[in-house]
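Follow-up to my earlier ticket, as requested here are the two runs.
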Amino acid sequence: MQRHPFEFQINPLVLTLFLILVTLFVSTGISRARVSTDNLIFILDASGSMEFRINGKTKIGIVRDILTDQIKTLPASLQAGLVAYGHRHKGDCNDVEELVPVSPMNAALLIKKIRAITPTGMTSVSLAIRNASEKIRHLKGRTAVILIADGQDSCMNDPCALVRELKAKGIKFAVHVIGFDVTGDAEKQLSGIAQAGQGGYFRAGNAKELKLALKKTIKKLGIKDRQRQSEKKSEKKRTVPSQMSSSQPPKLSENKVTLKVNAGRIRKAPSLQSDIKFSLKKGSTVSVIDKKEEWLHIRLDDGRTGWSHQRLFSLSDQDQTADAEVTREIRAIRTDLTSEGKEKVIFVQNSFHPPKIFFIEEDPPKVVCDFFDTRLGKDTDSYIKVNSKFIQKIRTGLHKIPVSKLRVVVDLVPNKTYELEHIFLKEKKHCVLIIKSARKFSDRP
């Protein structure tokens, strides 16, 4: 047979090698396109301003709920950690703590630590990032940091320059930032952190926007949504015909709670302003299917659902993840006047629940401690006369509007300047208020 001048023969071995190389190239390209984050570190702002309210709810409360919901969707293959700042001591720029080391996903632990965070002190953004970077340098794989903050660094540091410095040292990580209710210089700094960290910046002004911003951030990291996968499996299961009557409620594995008051109002939403759906009688036992701060989402055996405040119920099953299930009580209020240059007020509690503390410059000046959903123990005096160098008297009162709280007011000696500190001793269940003479102090909420 005569060959065409431009025809040539291909060696079968060469063709095989060529196909193998093409396959490897294509496979490598696909795998690179699918690379996602291996390690994720959340850094949470717990400075005092996170106690401010948006639409009636504290900013920290909004973050707790939305971050909790998002963590439940993260896959078990992810390694995750948690860092917080400003959650223990007032006025302390070194108040940064690694609450959960980067380790295989433990959603229950992360949620428990997040729900225990109480806004208290300074905005130590730079130190939080630096501390996280010490852990990042030892991690394998791709690492991302998600910073949720409502203000700029208040400790005279430049977090943008710090992130650039860490990047220059070869520490491999991306910083994504969600600015929660920020404007002006604060937003400029937070967006600058994201730019320096080669990450995304998202602005959120309320709960809805925060939820969307967090979802966008997680999506940007390429992390698969465990919840969507489980929903797909559930959809397949629903297509299987069932012999069970549609009116028969499913079996629930949630904790059971029992109404301990004479009558309990069940509402459409977790708010005292929400409409009432129905009422329960004392002794009614229901299942808890969700929880938002002090509110329980309950379900009856007949399928009805609604929201009610947790103080109306006692537990049938022990929930180890929340201190609020115990009826909160101040069992004693003590004073320690022996410390040189300072005086202490010690609140002895039955469970760990730090109060909100602020100073009022009046005549006489006052320190106010609000213990939410708390009662005064039957053996605890509601009025304590002190007449010491700094403290005149301590008085308590129960307030129910807008929310239930036990307010403790410490009246101070006038015509002096004061500095306040407070320490929370979680194991002892003590809150210690320290009062000492210092420069003029004002910290009104």
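Run two:
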Amino acid sequence: MDIQRINLLKKIMALEFTCIDFNLYLDTHPEDYRALADYNAACEELLAAKKQYESLYGPLTNFGSSPSPKAWRWIEEPWPWERTF
């Protein structure tokens, strides 16, 4: 697996963690508008990173979350759970 692909996956994982962490914080601090703005920014960055990854390497998830416009790319290797870093 090439280094660009690995780095993009690591970025996606870090952004997912950030969004989950903000989500948990906002559950107990719903009036923290700075945290809400940071959460929204992280979510936008995550969506952009996922879109970039999927346009270059194929879907990250299945079952309707990742369209496959040209060919059915879900069967391409490596499968998400087979990736190593």
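The only thing I checked on run two: The two ends are 9 Å apart (CA to CA). Let me know what else you need.
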